Amino acid sequence: MTDAPPRAFRLGLINPNTDTAHTAAMLEVVAGVLPAGGAVDAVAVARGPRSIESRADAAVAAAEVARAVHDDPGHDAYLIACFGDPGLDAARELTGAPVVGIGAAAFAAVAMVARRFAVITTLARGIAELEEAVEAAGLRRRCAGVLALGIPVAAQGAAYPDTTERIIELGRRACEELGADALVLACGGMSGVTERVAQAVGVPATNGVAVGALTAHALWRAGLRTSAGGAYAPPEPIPYDGMPSFTRS
Amino acid sequence: MTDAPPRAFRLGLINPNTDTAHTAAMLEVVAGVLPAGGAVDAVAVARGPRSIESRADAAVAAAEVARAVHDDPGHDAYLIACFGDPGLDAARELTGAPVVGIGAAAFAAVAMVARRFAVITTLARGIAELEEAVEAAGLRRRCAGVLALGIPVAAQGAAYPDTTERIIELGRRACEELGADALVLACGGMSGVTERVAQAVGVPATNGVAVGALTAHALWRAGLRTSAGGAYAPPEPIPYDGMPSFTRS
Amino acid sequence: MTDAPPRAFRLGLINPNTDTAHTAAMLEVVAGVLPAGGAVDAVAVARGPRSIESRADAAVAAAEVARAVHDDPGHDAYLIACFGDPGLDAARELTGAPVVGIGAAAFAAVAMVARRFAVITTLARGIAELEEAVEAAGLRRRCAGVLALGIPVAAQGAAYPDTTERIIELGRRACEELGADALVLACGGMSGVTERVAQAVGVPATNGVAVGALTAHALWRAGLRTSAGGAYAPPEPIPYDGMPSFTRS
Amino acid sequence: MTDAPPRAFRLGLINPNTDTAHTAAMLEVVAGVLPAGGAVDAVAVARGPRSIESRADAAVAAAEVARAVHDDPGHDAYLIACFGDPGLDAARELTGAPVVGIGAAAFAAVAMVARRFAVITTLARGIAELEEAVEAAGLRRRCAGVLALGIPVAAQGAAYPDTTERIIELGRRACEELGADALVLACGGMSGVTERVAQAVGVPATNGVAVGALTAHALWRAGLRTSAGGAYAPPEPIPYDGMPSFTRS
Amino acid sequence: MTDAPPRAFRLGLINPNTDTAHTAAMLEVVAGVLPAGGAVDAVAVARGPRSIESRADAAVAAAEVARAVHDDPGHDAYLIACFGDPGLDAARELTGAPVVGIGAAAFAAVAMVARRFAVITTLARGIAELEEAVEAAGLRRRCAGVLALGIPVAAQGAAYPDTTERIIELGRRACEELGADALVLACGGMSGVTERVAQAVGVPATNGVAVGALTAHALWRAGLRTSAGGAYAPPEPIPYDGMPSFTRS
Amino acid sequence: MTDAPPRAFRLGLINPNTDTAHTAAMLEVVAGVLPAGGAVDAVAVARGPRSIESRADAAVAAAEVARAVHDDPGHDAYLIACFGDPGLDAARELTGAPVVGIGAAAFAAVAMVARRFAVITTLARGIAELEEAVEAAGLRRRCAGVLALGIPVAAQGAAYPDTTERIIELGRRACEELGADALVLACGGMSGVTERVAQAVGVPATNGVAVGALTAHALWRAGLRTSAGGAYAPPEPIPYDGMPSFTRS
């Protein structure tokens, strides 16, 4: 048995949209997996879209995520809990704590348990962006395909069993026809049904909320902090009009 | 001689920062190159950083750019006049008119007049992001290097001759030591000194403001409009909290 | 309203094949889109294939394009009006004026109005070369597919309505089955039917002749000239046997 | 505060070389960071090189790693504690538990806390392989360089202060001259000095042993298991000559 | 007519598996194509899998290949005769003679006679690894697809006519549906049926055994030897436990 | 000892420039390495540049290479003996025999004997094109650099000892400063000094003439012919003006 960690770990979970029911569901998922002594709080986004389906929604959300991290600086690590990771680079300039996005975390995790994975998303309009995210993660050749449910973010989760059935159906097709060995569920709203999908399809599945929280913990516990130099250095002291400037905590 | 175009072209120039002197300087550059019958107006960003040096600044600016395009829909094309192209994909969802970013336009143009180019930016913190932009533009193998002046956006332009001398010095070094054949000046604030740098260094130089405006005109005149399907489809009708939702013009 | 450009713009259009009817059709397309004061002339290729379907045809045509630019040096910019851009790099060594290829121009343009595009070509033998051109343009991940009509260059254009119907049919399939948001018509001979295809399929379409001419104008008007250093420097003074050497205008 | 995990986590640490002092040092590092309730055991490699400097050494070690996982199947996760990750894919066929390599874990972690990192290795002969590993991790454009100490594996660790000074010196050069924001120490033997290097250079540093163990825990706790389908399916029942066949636990 | 080579060429063929019937079949193929004066011997692998279907099999085989080259150093060149090229880099450290893998040789050869090829393998589990090999060979964009027979290594060769029929059927499908112009038969055991498949499908086919042996001869005859510097330098003098160390011949 | 090949091998060597002294020197190199029974003839290019330094020279030469292969169809294989491989794809449409370029052959060969190589060329203007050729060969990450002598093609070869000294000096620098393990001499005119350079620098060196001829032999002897389908199918029957059309032999 190892020693207990030197002190408690406190994670800030940022739901980039304003749907508080989704926030609560993700907090529960995270609280259920953090090591003993770990805690998670919601870091509130003040305003913006109630769900994020478009790049316009994401642009607004990214600015709010940056503001939220800036205004609530006391956590050991942050988790941006929307699969598109809005505001990730901006947030890393605003805190020395590690900042993890659930999209990047899901891709890093799936690549360690399978050789080829499929990505399941909500609407077809998001396919191009997810293909670019897979490319940015360096995993293009390991992605068997990106498939869309045709069902929006707002109808994801345990309360929508039909959506879950459709995810399972698409997952089976990805394995049988495209040769996928694992699934990435590309929506924070799918966090409550991940295990169910994995069991039904018979391959590993992740949506990044659970593994993203544990990744944030891992970075923190290994002593890694966001670099204060180079691209993630604290913002320059630029004057802002109509809103307060950013300064790094 | 060709026929006159069927009607006047009206370009919306969006300066993503709130520095109105920069806006005025860029409007002058654009007005000086548009074909007869073309006109350019500033599309105002309501608030945010007075210059954009960090990803946090850019995240705020991107949201404001999206809002500006949404709220001022009557132009034939839009030009986002900051080299990082903040809000470009979001803006394309919000209008059927072509939307051009000066960064993407500068890379497309330089690739047609030279085989290897160097990029000159303001601060070293921006190097990583520009390297990613070169990669995204598919031009990694044609980029001889990204060099930083160590001088912020706010000290760029014709009013800062020492900055211009430093750009020329870096440009010469890029050609002699790195084998560059052309220069990309990666800051909208450099638009007034581009010609001077090109002449002093003896290679083509662009910063994207002039060629970006002409590219927007070219897309429009060729009958190209932003696709209304797929990734650039108008935003879904998502409810927003604390601000109005987006709907595509 | 902006000032008129300092003087008229004169574009040299090079049809790399010897089909003068195609040349005339493309001249008309270009003349219809150039800004007021702009003019276009044909720069004649003396001999070679009447259409370009193979790499052997293209090799002959490339040499003729280089010769044509060399022998007719007085234009402000040149447009190589065959989708494979034969002789493009060679031509750039032979003139200080910008040289644009319709293939490269079409790819650069479509990437600014859509996130994923499909390419429609004449014969299946050209698919591999077009895939390489997409890769060279840095747009591999944004290309939904390259589809062949199975109809040669010589049967393209407004005089072949059945060909146009087939283009429309392939275009619809590319959008519905492959997720394309826009079309690139990869043959100069399709320049007269581009608008018709775009309207029928309901997405942006380009074949590069119109937007290529406007791009050449844009480079020129922005003051960009082909770099005289590095890879595009004027040819070395090499003796030739059986034909005159090249010297840069 | 969260619930305790349902039961203890038991990690198998595989040192692919036969240097038991290195094994002991890495066990101590891992034991020091695992969450409460977690434990780590050495999974012994029977024979082979006492350190791994060449591909020939690595080939032998990879076969021994596969054998060790096969013969000691009872762990919740495995960590292959040599930076080249020898035998990683083979081991994943031989167990349903997650298998993490410290090289892949270090690259995944550093990419979440910095935008550009440098890699410090032991001998120059390893540079090419590490460059390929960076490429395989999809991080080529974020790697500022791979630098060699010119000091072998056997002279790494807290007992060799001169080596540590040399790592610090190289790390500073990587930041100042190459623009690195973080360091990857590419040798399991450097696990005891990582923190010292990070503090001296002033940027995040990782060598993968600590963060790799925590990553293995994270995968396990998030319910992810190595896929039993596709490329990581249990080995086919092939007869072996001169040694026992593999069968998946 | 040219002079005879200065002395006879002697190739060492290493079958990484222990199936001596396969070894004999491949020796016959090689002996049939080597230039006059050339000879081929089997370099025996002492133990390990009787065929190689998994990465665990390949890990064991790679170590045995390295050992075999080390222990039988007198050849002018070596051919590793399993499509996955197990132990290739390790073997290159252990001899100054050129070492060729049949996989790498097959890819290099097919790229010189066709623009797009398909790869036919034994089991679906190998698809991911072959896709990575195509990528490593720099030929991703020229590979039309990797198709699996669903028939193991042990049932390949002239003694299994049904397997050959299935290869032909898959090959035809690859040409008709995927646009392949040539086939790569990705298994050393297919060496005896390559010509039959090529004739039946009507496109070039290779499995690397014949062309790999001739490539090894070509490297040797052109005076090329494995580099003794950098990544392929002889192994460091590392002590081994339980087996002899490697030293380069 | 193996059987003699069924009949003599007859290689057509195409020097794309009109310098007959270079042709003679390369014929001698090739004749010295071909297996017993092999013969080489020059396939004459009628006209064009006496050496190839620019893309304009290469465009003319490519058309002449295609014509030469078309007009002299009786060889078992062809070797295009200029490092830029002018007309390679065109020539492959015009013959069923394998066609090898010395550039592609040199890259394929060096990748089998070293992990990182440097390329030495004549003039700096060729660097960008060689970097693209390395990328097209899929070897970007294995190329330590492309270095220019600043000495034209016409002053290469055994008659220019000062040039040879300069090659050796650059080669040493490439190994010491850039970490190269091998050299590619990127000019057919260097074929007579390759061995001397290799010995002086102490690493493998190739310029492709010798290994290219042996590669052409290897493809032929292994039964590989240029694919008659897809991209290398015989040219379409296109009418030509001012010169005869191509038809495949």
Comma- or semicolon-separated keywords:
homohexamer, alpha/beta, Rossmann fold, 2 domains, 16% strand
Summed up:
The structure is a homohexamer of 249-residue chains. The first copy, chain A, is α/β, with parallel strands linked by helices.
Q: Could you explain the architecture of this structure?
A:
The structure is a homohexamer of 249-residue chains. Chain A has 249 residues and is α/β, with parallel strands linked by helices. Chain A folds into 2 domains: 9-101 and 210-232, 3-Layer(aba) Sandwich (Rossmann fold), CATH 3.40.50; 103-208, Rossmann fold (3-Layer(aba) Sandwich), CATH 3.40.50.12500. Chain A is 39% helix and 16% strand. The first copy, chain A, is built from 8 helices and 10 strands. Chain A has helices at residues 20-33, 55-71, 88-93, 102-113, 127-136, 161-178, 194-201, 209-221; strands spanning 9-14, 38-42, 48-49, 77-80, 99-101, 117-121, 143-148, 182-185, 205-206, 240-241. Chain A has a 4-stranded parallel sheet with strand order 2-1-4-5, sandwiched between helices. Chain A has a 4-stranded parallel sheet with strand order 7-6-8-9, sandwiched between helices. In chain A, helix 1 crosses helix 8. The radius of gyration of chain A is 18 Å and the shape is globular. Chains in contact: A-B, A-C, A-D, A-E, B-C, B-D, B-F, C-E, C-F, D-E, D-F, E-F. Chains A and E meet through loops of A and helix 5 of E. Strand 10 of chain C pairs antiparallel with strand 3 (48-49) of chain F.
